[in-house]
């Protein structure tokens, strides 16, 4: 289909992939990504997937395995090793009416396409006075925990959260990976979709068999509590749960919140939690300085200051290049998170 043709959209309400009715299934996070891509390719002929090795090989993490065979080389195809070209092509396709989903092989490699993202995709609606939009999705594996070192383990989400015009998403469950990705593809804005690679096969959960989306900008309360609000996103969420379990064994009731998306982020749910508990510990694996969670901390102290019983505490990565072999030291694991919670509780 050319970009100027009338798009053919097949709605799949109440059905599973390609219209096959199925019940809930337990899958892992990368399967959620693959299913979302397959279902959107089947639903909307405007959707195209491309990137380095996403075609015949199915991507370095196999997220697009089998999709070229099913949907053809004109819908799922490989690109040269040029992130600037990948993003630039996605912007052009989006402006001309397609729904491009571009894969950058690792989040660390997004640098060569940075200008295209922040100067073109993010500003297209504003600079054209609303005449054009760039509804594209850039998928990319992000974060550490796989001993990939400083070229394959960075968490650069703050760069993109700082740029008006972009939406920034990072799921931590198969349900959210599938539902948020489908929502991103169907939306009207450029979305940077970070996928925590250490959860690709470690995170498992139930997803429904029918068509569904998850609204971008709504946080999820993973567990309710009364003593402290523990807030994170992406790859750290399993560590938050472990820390909360350890504290629960000591009689501490922890509320765990998964932001799921950074732009927009769910201020209302975060503030309601902190106003209830009086304490907040914010966790991410990005370097500490200029970390996105600093923005969350600012909003908490600005709008919920009278409710705070202790200073907001942040647990993050260190201001160093990501280490090759010491990733367990670099990452904010359950022990470091629990220790930060104890500091807030004892203030």
UniProtKB/TrEMBL annotation:
<dbReference type="InterPro" id="IPR009014">
    <property type="entry name" value="Transketo_C/PFOR_II"/>
</dbReference>
<dbReference type="InterPro" id="IPR029061">
    <property type="entry name" value="THDP-binding"/>
</dbReference>
<feature type="domain" description="Transketolase-like pyrimidine-binding">
    <location>
        <begin position="27"/>
        <end position="202"/>
    </location>
</feature>
<protein>
    <recommendedName>
        <fullName>3-methyl-2-oxobutanoate dehydrogenase (2-methylpropanoyl-transferring)</fullName>
        <ecNumber>1.2.4.4</ecNumber>
    </recommendedName>
</protein>
<feature type="compositionally biased region" description="Basic and acidic residues">
    <location>
        <begin position="8"/>
        <end position="18"/>
    </location>
</feature>
<dbReference type="Pfam" id="PF02780">
    <property type="entry name" value="Transketolase_C"/>
</dbReference>
<dbReference type="GO" id="GO:0009083">
    <property type="term" value="P:branched-chain amino acid catabolic process"/>
</dbReference>
<keyword id="KW-0560">Oxidoreductase</keyword>
<dbReference type="InterPro" id="IPR005475">
    <property type="entry name" value="Transketolase-like_Pyr-bd"/>
</dbReference>
<comment type="subunit">
    <text>Heterotetramer of two alpha and two beta chains. Directly associated with ODBA in the E1 complex.</text>
</comment>
<dbReference type="Pfam" id="PF02779">
    <property type="entry name" value="Transket_pyr"/>
</dbReference>
<dbReference type="GO" id="GO:0003863">
    <property type="term" value="F:branched-chain 2-oxo acid dehydrogenase activity"/>
</dbReference>
<feature type="region of interest" description="Disordered">
    <location>
        <begin position="1"/>
        <end position="25"/>
    </location>
</feature>
<dbReference type="GO" id="GO:0007584">
    <property type="term" value="P:response to nutrient"/>
</dbReference>
<dbReference type="InterPro" id="IPR033248">
    <property type="entry name" value="Transketolase_C"/>
</dbReference>
């Amino acid at each position: 289909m050319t970009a100027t043709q009338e798009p053919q959209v097949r709605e799949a309400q109440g059905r599973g992939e390609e219209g096959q009715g199925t019940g809930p299934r337990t899958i892992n996070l990368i399967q959620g990504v693959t299913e979302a891509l397959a279902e959107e390719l089947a639903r909307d002929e405007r959707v195209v997937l491309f990137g380095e090795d996403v075609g015949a090989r199915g991507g370095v993490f196999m997220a697009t395995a089998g999709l070229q065979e099913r949907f053809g080389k004109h819908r799922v195809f490989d690109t040269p090793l040029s992130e600037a070209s990948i993003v630039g092509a996605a912007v052009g396709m989006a402006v001309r009416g397609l729904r491009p989903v571009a894969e950058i092989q690792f989040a660390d490699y997004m640098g060569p396409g940075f200008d295209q993202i922040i100067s073109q995709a993010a500003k297209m609606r504003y600079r054209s006075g609303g005449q054009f939009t760039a509804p594209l999705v850039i998928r990319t594996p992000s974060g550490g925990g796989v001993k990939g070192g400083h070229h394959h383990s960075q968490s650069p989400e703050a760069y993109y959260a700082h740029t008006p015009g972009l939406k920034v998403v990072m799921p931590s469950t198969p349900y959210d990976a599938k539902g948020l990705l489908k929502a991103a593809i169907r939306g009207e804005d450029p979305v940077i979709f970070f996928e925590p690679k250490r959860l690709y096969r470690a995170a498992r959960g139930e997803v429904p068999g029918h068509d569904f989306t998850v609204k971008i900008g709504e946080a999820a309360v993973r567990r309710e509590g009364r003593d402290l609000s523990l807030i994170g996103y992406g790859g750290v969420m399993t560590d938050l749960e472990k820390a909360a379990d350890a504290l629960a064994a000591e009689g501490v009731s922890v509320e765990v919140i998964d932001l799921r998306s950074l732009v927009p982020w769910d201020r209302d749910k975060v503030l309601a939690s902190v106003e209830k508990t009086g304490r907040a510990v914010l966790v991410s694996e990005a370097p500490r300085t200029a970390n996105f969670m600093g923005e969350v901390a600012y909003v908490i102290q600005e709008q919920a200051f009278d409710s705070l019983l202790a200073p907001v505490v942040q647990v993050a990565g260190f201001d160093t290049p990501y280490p090759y072999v010491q990733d367990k030291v670099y990452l904010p694991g359950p022990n470091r998170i629990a220790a930060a919670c104890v500091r807030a509780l004892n203030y």
